[in-house]
Design a protein that fits this description.
binds flavin-adenine dinucleotide
Length: 305
């Protein structure tokens, strides 16, 4: 892993740095580039614009690693409010939600996370949309896949996320290829014992693309990597997959022109839109992905402090 990336991900866990970044005036501008806003209404406004431009959306209410059941419940209620609003605005057919189990109490117990995720899935079904379970660090993978399997008994279209940096993921892709699966490279600092590094992550991504496209499920290719986007397009043609039988996904604020280009070509493009006040961990992962963003941010922080 790039040393700067490890440093930023380590800094993400440091309380003093968290306070400095969260209160620095410059943070607002950087945050706004990647996060829709703090309120449900901000999320709805951004969703409306993206849908009007021909893109689909998945919304993430920010907040992870909750330490008590009350916070987990607050996060569930935020999703219920969001789903109601999507339904009321007629946006549910084009906008689903992404959920992190750690925000629903996974650290307090898998049963609590399952019960809370079930509340979100039930509400999503009523509103005419779906849920995808984000994948977090590798210590949670087995637990997240167990919860996914339980949820799919009642809500079979619940989406999974698999990370190509994990050595195990090719096998997971083969097992889940008949279902809705988002494929990502992976955003957490992981040890070599479980994860590939550098170019190996990309090679693994391509193996997983093939595994998912040969299945009869609905793969969701989440990457901004121009080379991987080209390879997905070529592989989709090879497997005779028509647009709409798979989709591309990218993050809000990243490679917008490419998102529009793919949508113009008739591809389904879904934008991952985070919102809410707990934006710190999310922002740190985005900065860790791109040293250029970090240098700009660090300079601005120093000049303001
Ligand atoms: C829709 C979506 C959902 C995701 N869900 C998860 C999840 O559940 N679990 C998880 O671990 N990870 C998730 N991720 C993050 C993912 O794992 C990667 O960390 C992230 O997508 C960066 O990898 P990349 O494939 O874009 O390739 P990279 O190699 O990081 O980037 C390739 C190129 O894309 C551009 N680019 C990438 N990032 C940025 C940026 N921040 N700003 C500007 N340009 C950029 C640059 O041109 C770069 O050269 C998700 C990503 C997306 C798009």
């Amino acid at each position: 892993m790039h040393p700067l990336r490890s440093l930023i991900l380590a800094a993400a866990g440091n309380d003093a740095i968290r306070r400095l970044v969260a209160t620095a005036p410059v943070s607002r501008d950087v945050v706004r580039r990647f996060v829709a806003g703090e309120q449900t209404s901000d999320a709805i406004d951004v969703t409306r614009e993206l849908v009007a431009s021909g893109r689909s959306v998945t919304l993430d209410h920010l907040g992870e690693d909750v330490a008590d059941a009350e916070h987990a419940d607050q996060n569930v209620r935020a999703y219920l409010e969001l789903l109601d609003a999507l339904h009321a605005e007629g946006l549910a057919p084009k906008a689903e939600v992404s959920v992190k189990l750690s925000a629903l109490g996974q650290k307090l117990g898998e049963r609590l996370a399952l019960a809370n995720a079930s509340r979100v899935c039930a509400a999503a079904e009523q509103c005419g949309t779906t849920v995808t379970l984000d994948m977090e660090d590798h210590t949670t993978t087995d637990s997240t896949l167990r919860v996914l399997a339980e949820l799919r008994r009642s809500w079979p279209s619940t989406g999974a996320v698999l990370q190509s940096y994990l050595r195990r993921t090719f096998d997971d892709c083969k097992s889940l290829a008949g279902s809705r699966v988002r494929l990502v490279k992976g955003a957490y600092a992981e040890p070599d014992s479980v994860a590939f590094d550098g170019h190996e992550v990309d090679l693994s991504y391509v193996r997983c693309v093939n595994a998912l496209l040969t299945g009869d499920g609905y793969p969701m290719f989440a990457t901004h990597d121009p080379r991987l986007v080209r390879i997905v397009a070529e592989r989709a043609r090879w497997y005779d997959r028509k647009p709409g039988t798979y989709e591309y996904q990218m993050l809000f604020g990243v490679r917008q022109e490419e998102q529009r280009r793919l949508a113009r070509e008739g591809e389904t493009v879904r934008v991952y839109v985070p919102y809410g006040s707990q934006w710190y961990g999310y922002l740190m992962r985005r900065l860790a992905e791109r040293p250029a963003n970090t240098t700009f941010f660090a300079r601005a922080l120093v000049s303001h402090s």
